[in-house]
Amino acid sequence: MIDKALLLKTRELSDQLIALQTPIRILDAINWDKQTKEEFFRQKCQKNPLIDRAYYQQRDLGFVPSELRQAFSTLHRNIINQLGQLNPITQYMGKMCSEYKTVLNMLEYRGTAEFHDLSVELFGHPKDLFHAGEPSLSELANMLEQPLKSLLDANILPEDPKNIDASDAVRILSEQVNASMQGINVEVMLSDGIVSDAAAGANNIKLNQDVKFSQRELDILEVHEGWIHVGTTQNGLAQPYLTCLSKGTPSSTVTQEGLAVLTEIITLKSTPRRLSKLVNRIQAVTKVIDGAEFVDIYRDYVAQGLSKDDSYTLAQRVFRGSTATGLPFTKDIAYIKGFVLVYNLIRVAIQLGRIDQLPLLLVGKISIDDFRLISQLHDLGVIENPQFVPPHFKDLRGLATWLSFGRFIGNLSFEQLENDYKPLFL
């Protein structure tokens, strides 16, 4: 166990880290304004939006990057001096300081090629390999696309109608999360300042006031934004010493989104169209790396049957922070990349008989790369068990059975199975 005085010093330094990162809002700093969208449609969707470095520089970040970067360096030095260089607490908080400094560098390079390079450093690249000789993330997305396309083309699993106004959706989702997340007061509210349909805060879920929702979408938001994003934030805030677990770095974003997507799937809330959307995000990022421009990605989405508004929004996700002809912001690969990493971690935990450690994924906004360090800090009494645990992690028997059986089925040859069963459907 760690000395009590050292734990109190940890709390003090952790709170300082939270205060330093508070003004950093990556998406606010890189999203395009409504005027850019209006001008694109005035040009009949034929010309790329005029976005350059000057466009971003005129936007006030609310802080001076060089000064904030220096403050993180000073804090990192204080952590080392007060906790010790080899202390696992120092290792964890030191990594957070370094990653936030990279975020600041990325924001300074908005509208340049360096912005893309730094986003790759933080979130990864679609052509990265998990292991030598295995498919890249982009190739995995292409492999997943075909069965999804077959399901969607057959139109035997139609999407639920989007017939719930945003104001009614607030009421319905509030009732759902307050029933399933007892002990955590989650506020659901309307917002006109988000690009996506919904977004999670520390203790709230914001719904786009201009969007209609289906009940299925609200079910997904409950488990994705509520159980995972709000839940892990609140678990981090409840930590007695390492409160900075409530704040996510880009590397933890990958794990967070992976956990959220896994939760959608395990709870049977997700749909083929939802998964197809996540796959398309990886493909869009890959196409831009291979030379596609904004209008190309926009037209791709329109050709897939999406509305002009949705096509613009999805294309903008890829180019935010960059220019309409530049290299992409790679955050959108986090969903499937994170899913693969989290899924494999759980499989290995089952194989090793260490499934009891899996709730540690929920103690805050952690990265899988830090899982061993988190386990060590838990054993030392620095980190406490998560207060809110979703049902599928509270009773691990179902999760263990599902994944164990999945591994067994995965060893069977699908090609042979297809040959055996395909005649039954002809």
How are the elements arranged and paired?
Layout: H1 4-21, H2 26-30, H3 34-42, H4 53-57, H5 65-83, H6 88-108, H7 113-123, H8 137-154, H9 166-180, E1 187-191, E2 198-200, E3 204-208, H10 215-237, H11 250-266, H12 272-289, H13 294-303, H14 308-319, H15 334-351, H16 371-379, H17 391-394, H18 396-410, H19 414-421
Parallel strand pairs: 1-3
Antiparallel strand pairs: 2-3
Helix pairs in contact: 1-5, 1-6, 5-6, 6-7, 6-16, 8-12, 9-10, 10-11, 11-15, 13-14, 15-18
Provide a brief overview of the structure.
By secondary structure, the protein is mostly helical. It contains 19 helices and 3 strands. The protein has a 3-stranded mixed β-sheet, with helices on one face.
Structural summary, described in words:
- This protein has 19 helices and three strands.
- 38% of the residues are buried.
- The model has no long low-confidence stretch (mean pLDDT 91).
- The protein has helices spanning 4-21, 26-30, 34-42, 53-57, 65-83, 88-108, 113-123, 137-154, 166-180, 215-237, 250-266, 272-289, 294-303, 308-319, 334-351, 371-379, 391-394, 396-410, 414-421; strands at residues 187-191, 198-200, 204-208.
- With 426 residues, it is mainly alpha-helical.
- A three-stranded mixed β-sheet has the order 1-3-2, with helices on one face.
- It is globular.
Helical region count?
Answer: 19
Strand ordering within the main sheet: 1-3-2
Beta fraction: under 5%
Q: N- to C-terminal separation? A: 65 Å
What's the helical proportion of residues?
Answer: 55-70%
Total count of strands: 3
Low-pLDDT parts are none
**Mean pLDDT, nearest integer?**
91
Structural class: mainly alpha
Shape from CA axes?
globular
Quaternary assembly: single chain
Organism: Pseudoalteromonas undina
Cofactor: Zn(2+)
Pfam families: MATCAP (PF08014)
Keywords: Hydrolase, Metalloprotease, Protease
